[in-house]
UniProtKB/TrEMBL annotation:
GO terms for molecular function: metal ion binding. GO terms for cellular component: mitochondrial inner membrane; respiratory chain complex IV. It comes from Dipodomys ordii. It comes from the Eukaryota. It is found in: Mitochondrion inner membrane. CDD domains: Cyt_c_Oxidase_Vb. InterPro entries: Cyt_c_oxidase_su5b, Cyt_c_oxidase_su5b_sf. This is Cytochrome c oxidase subunit 5B, mitochondrial. GO terms for biological process: mitochondrial electron transport, cytochrome c to oxygen. Pathway: Energy metabolism; oxidative phosphorylation. Zn(2+) binds at residues 91, 93, 113, 116. Keywords: Acetylation, Membrane, Metal-binding, Mitochondrion, Mitochondrion inner membrane, Transit peptide, Zinc.
């Protein structure tokens, strides 16, 4: 079985070496002969491609990017996008804090974080 595989691989290698272009030069098959190495955009498919195309247009359809940071006051709250009328929010009150304070944010008025007092407001996405 193994000898058959080796013979088959050897035959394919010999055919590749014998391949010649019409001018007699050997045929070289590489990524460079087809225009270079493909980019991430060329290779992406499905959801990854959809996200890349949206980023090129300046959009964020799945809330992947970090939200814009606001002052966190009642007049200038942190805006939290949502497709429903409530969303759970996690606030890291201090920069070096290792705990997250979770609370529900409901549509309507601004709401305060119970830990640090920063204000958040739910907006439609």
């Amino acid at each position: 079985m193994a000898s058959r595989l080796l013979r088959g691989a050897g035959a394919l290698a010999a055919q590749a070496l014998k391949a010649r272009a019409p001018n007699g030069a050997p045929v070289v098959r590489s990524m460079a002969s087809r225009g270079g190495v493909p980019t991430d955009e060329d290779q992406a498919t499905g959801l990854e491609r959809e996200i890349m195309m949206a980023r090129q247009k300046g959009q964020d359809p799945y809330n992947i990017l970090a939200p814009k940071v606001a002052a966190g006051t009642k007049e200038d709250p942190n805006l939290v996008p949502s497709i429903s009328n409530k969303r759970i929010v996690g606030c890291i009150c201090e920069e070096d804090n290792c705990t997250v304070i979770w609370f529900w944010l409901h549509k309507g008025e601004t709401q305060r974080c119970p830990g640090c007092g920063s204000h958040y407001k739910l907006v439609s996405h």
